[in-house]
Design a protein that fits this description.
single chain, 3-stranded antiparallel beta sheet, 3 strands
Amino acid sequence: VAHMDKISHVHVTLKVDNDNEQCASVNVTVPGSLINAHASSEDMYKTIDKLVDNLNSQLQKYKDKHSKHRD
C-alpha cells in the first residue's frame, strides 16, 4: 500500500518446511493493531508474491477503516 506512514515495526520470517514447502509470514505493527499475513507454496518467489498481495489487502482494509474515522 503506497504511503502507509504509520507502520512502526515489521517482522518477516522465511522458512522451508521438511516437505520442501516454502513458507513466509510477516507481522506489521500499526497504531492499535498487529497485522499478520502468511503464505506458502512450492516456490519461494511465488510465496513472497502471495504474501505481499495478502499484506497489501490487509493494509488497505486498515487504511480504509481508519480514514473513515477521520472524515
